[in-house]
Amino acid sequence: MNRKFLNVILLGFGFMFVFTAFQTMGNIEKTVLDSISQDDPSFTGDGYTSLAIIYATLALCNWMAPSIITITGPRGAMVIGGTTYLFFIVTFLFPRTWLLYVASVLIGAGAAAIWTGQGNYLTLNSDADTISRNSGVFWAMLQCSMFFGNLFVFIKFQGKTHIDSETRNVVFGALTGVCVIGLLFLMLLRPAKRMPTLEDAKGDIVTHEVAETPLEAFKGALKLFCTRDMLLLSLTFIYTGVELSFFSGVYSSSIGFTLAMGENAKQLVGLSGVFIGLGEVLGGALFGILGSKTTRWGRDPIVIMGYFIHLLSFFLIFINLPTVAPFGDTEEVSYITPSPPLAMFCSFLLGFGDACFNTQIYSILGGNYSDNSTSAFALFKFTQSLAAAACFFYSSKALLSVQLIVLGALASLGTAAFCRVEWAARARARAAALDLDKGETTTHALADNALHYD
Questions:
Q1: Which residues of the chain fall below pLDDT 70?
Q2: Distance, CA of 99 to CA of 108 (rounded, Å)
Q3: Strands 198-199 and 205-206
């Protein structure tokens, strides 16, 4: 196996285990914290508020992430970030309101480090021909976390209308162990360099890199953020942040709060996460296999497909779940009798559509900004996380129907912006190829004239 592709696989395993713990926790956090509050009235922590703090902190800290990575390197940043994820999971074994919110701030800062480091490390192990494949493979492995963790929760929550202390501790303990395994994989990551400049006598790759100071990295991120293409892509990033917060924290909880789903409504929270994960894994694997072809055909057809898939899922959610479902247990129904199979189908569509967007975002950032990948991925996570935080703040107050309308509008803007950047990049590539052909033609003509003169 190619050394760089092996690095991508190790990266995928590390994130798969770390995020099996975190994404499962995010999916069940609102439901679990409500159960803790019922057992202990002194505990007033709220799942939506915790997630909002996480993503707000992540957004702010992303501006510092490029500077931090110049000091720690991408591997060090990911290990440090992964440690904060472990701390966050452990705090659920000792539920305290203040500890929940402190851990939320810490994991937000750690998330900025781990995600910016990941984007930089993935780019260092890719080139123009492999970035789409590597992005798809990494995304598929990452989203396996949605499948395994939530399948475990589905089994443990079976037949329960209230998540008791013993069940909670078993789940939290298992997720803690899984997170430790992920950290070990991140520690096994090997150094990676950018493009080689020469080979030594043994054929080993030797690189020469210009060191960048933390201040220069920060200034570079600000400059990149103000470019036209990055501002347009920010609309796409904003949409992915809002839909991330919706499917990871709002939608599954809304299913569990819809009592008309039946006596196993709480169990469906975990099952929803499983189907979201299946959609994510299928999308990531598919686009990983077709990576070389998407590079030729363009990324826009995949994003447009994801757009229509999400619109379909928003409509089906609107008619299936009551509009007050995000707020807590409700007996209300929507336009049809709430259907568990339809809810799971929508979960799958949300996951598959999300894979369409995110794999192509990784591809365009790694391909178009390969020389400045640290800043590019930091700006992606800054914008995405800021939007996710805003969504979690209004999720506890906005009706489900309002949230779906917002999602539909942002999906339209984000898709249009992505296509505009992709088409412009393709036009520049064609123009550059044409100029190259003209240059070669001129060179050949001059050579022919010189021979004729001689």
A1: 1, 159-161, 193-218, 288-297, 370, 373, 432-433, 435-454
A2: 14
A3: antiparallel
Spatial CA neighbour of 371 closest among 268, 269, 224, 247:
224
Cβ atoms 88, 103 nearer than 8 A: yes
Instruction: Give the pair of three-digit tokens for residue 341.
Output: 């199979």
Q: What is the pLDDT of residue 207?
A: 37
Coil, strand or helix at 202: coil
Return the DSSP state at 7. H
- Helix, strand, coil tally for the chain in percent (to 5): 80, 0, 20
- Cα(395)–Cα(404) distance, rounded to whole angstroms? 11
- Collapsing DSSP to helix, strand or coil, 127 comes out as coil
CB count, 10 Å around CB of 379? 26
Tell me the pLDDT tens digit for each residue of 70-101.
888 888 999 999 999 999 999 988 888 899 89
Q: Is the distance from CB of 242 to CB of 20 less than 8 angstroms?
A: no
The three-state secondary structure class of 205 is strand
* Neighbouring residues of 58: CB distance < 8 A, sequence distance ≥ 6: 108, 109, 111, 112, 115, 381, 385, 389
> Rounded distance, CA 204 to CA 186, Å?
24
| pLDDT value of position 214 | 60
The widest CA-to-CA distance across the chain, in whole angstroms, is 97
Task: Report the C-alpha dihedral over residues 244, 246, 248, 252, rounded to 10 degrees.
Answer: -160
Of the candidates 353, 231, 184, 223, which has an alpha carbon nearest to the alpha carbon of residue 283? Answer: 353
Cβ count near 425 (within 10 Å): 16
